[in-house]
Amino acid sequence: MIVRGPATLEHMRIARFTTGAEPRYALVEGEPGQEVLRVLTGDPMYVPGQATDETVSLHGDEVRLLAPVIPRSKAVCVGKNFADHAAEIPPRPGHSEEPLMFVKPNTAVIGPDDPIVLPDFSQDVHFEAELAVVIGRVAKEVTAENAVDVIYGYTCANDVTARDVQAREDQWFRAKAFDSSLPLGPWITTDLDPDDVQIQSQVNGETRQSARTADMVHGVFDVIEAVTAVCTLLPGDVVLMGTPAGVGAVAHGDRVEVTIEGIGTLANPVVRR
Questions:
Q1: What pTM, to 2 d.p., does this model score?
Q2: Of all helices (H) and strands (E), which one includes residue 164?
């Protein structure tokens, strides 16, 4: 099997993993709890990858899932894209019908089970469960009608935010861009229909957020059009679609899970060092 993108029609789950050596890529096969990784040659994000005969149990002690993609240049995030969450954020002067955008650097990315490290400069760090779109080819001035052609797939994201810093600063860089503030995973799903899937978050097993992408103010394809009207997206860049209501603070020792229907669950512990 040749694995390539973007906009492949075949359902695939593509993971990035390590067994202690260099990161590798694999197809995720099997039912929940019994998944195996079918190793791929190369990085299918950039070159066609050949599925090999080598398989590794996802649940083996030596296997560790990594963030399925490290953005080539950036993660572009959309804020206040669920009306109920927008009501949780103190209003600012002015209003725009356009999606509110900000950028996280690729150094913010961590993978499944990597710790979210609470920054020293914040005492009020929040989780935000979000759908993330992984871009598969260079994209500039893409229309909503053609957006599917530049999408490689979808993954779960947690837009971790220093809420106290966000509230007192006009720019969101410190609040949003700190190291470990962008967990991604557990893998990329290539053929999700993003128009109406459930997004949930749990903290220590308690459900905190539950909504559907149908409730978003701006749909996935409209967001891609809006973002690419501003800047060029590169293969491997990620676009986050915003979070529903129910966000809240996390503390040292918590465990945050983001679950998206049709993808899976991304889980991370929270630590303060």
A1: 0.93
A2: helix 163-168
Helix, strand or coil for residue 216? strand
* Closest-CA residue to 204 (of 272, 159, 252): 252
What's the rounded Cα separation, in Å, for the pair 119 and 63?
28
| Neighbour-count burial of 212, counting CB atoms closer than 10 A to its CB (0-12 exposed, 13-18 middle, 19+ buried) | middle
* 169 token code pair: 């600063």
- Cα separation, 17 vs 7, whole angstroms: 23
Listed in order, strand segments (DSSP E) in 6-114 are 13-18, 24-29, 36-40, 49-57, 64-66, 75-79, 100-104, 109-110
Task: Give the residue among 223, 241, 220, 224 at the shortest CA–CA distance from 233.
Answer: 224
Residue 224's φ and ψ, nearest 5 degrees, are -60, -40
User: Residues 125-164: pLDDT tens digits?
Assistant: 999 999 999 999 999 999 999 999 999 999 999 999 999 9
**Domains, the chain, with CATH or none:** 2-65 (no CATH), 75-271 (3.90.850.10)
Residue 37 has a CB neighbour count (10 Å cut-off) of 26
Cα four-point dihedral sign 22, 136, 178, 250:
negative
Is-contact 158 75, C-beta < 8 A? no
